[in-house]
Design a protein that fits this description.
This protein is mainly α and 183 residues long. The chain has nine helices and no strands. The chain is 78% helix and 0% strand.
């Protein structure tokens, strides 16, 4: 028998996770990290929340810690690395590797995230675009300028059209594209 109601604790965890997502989207990585650490500590039965924590750690430039959190999340719940969650898991892993200046390791993971996204999301879905953007960053970090510029242009257009000119990812990708064009 399935239970369709959620406990107060589960609703609170969902609310905090949503708050952390909002903070991360605004680039408030430290605040998002603090909220997510609280949620992850209280809800050890939901290792997928650790993906949000890894995202915040990546945003803070703490890539080694992000990789550790990702490895622990997958060890706690192998489903974190499967299905639709795998897109985010693999993209965050690639982002952490980029943060450690390991683009040659990040690129195949980013490509894998893009491939996984094709099977689970519409191409303009937030997670699909995040995976594609991560691939662009890996290509740029490998000095594959032409390929990176071509892909970043597509990503910038998609972010702008589907999430708006002020969305943090739109702004970031357009800034990276402009920097790439200047180099």
């Amino acid at each position: 028998m399935q239970v369709w109601w959620r406990t107060r604790s589960q609703r609170r965890a969902d609310s905090l996770a949503d708050e952390a997502k909002r903070l991360a989207a605004e680039g408030q990585w430290a605040r998002a990290e603090a909220v997510l650490r609280q949620v992850v500590r209280l809800h050890t039965d939901r290792p997928a929340l650790s993906l949000g924590l890894a995202r915040s750690l990546n945003g803070l430039g703490r890539a080694t810690e992000a990789l550790r959190v990702l490895a622990e999340a997958k060890a706690d719940d192998p489903q974190v690395g499967e299905g639709a969650l795998a897109v985010l898991f693999v993209a965050l892993t690639a982002q952490a590797l980029l943060g450690l200046d390991r683009p040659d390791e990040a690129e195949p993971r980013a490509r894998h995230a893009v491939d996984l996204a094709r099977g689970h999301y519409h191409p303009n879905n937030h997670r699909a675009l995040e995976a594609a953007t991560t691939l662009c960053r890996a290509l740029a970090a490998q000095d594959r300028r032409h390929e990176a510029e071509e892909q970043l242009t597509r990503c910038a257009t998609a972010w702008r059209e589907h999430f708006g000119a002020r969305h943090p990812h739109t702004v970031a990708v357009e800034t990276e594209l402009a920097a790439l064009a200047r180099s």
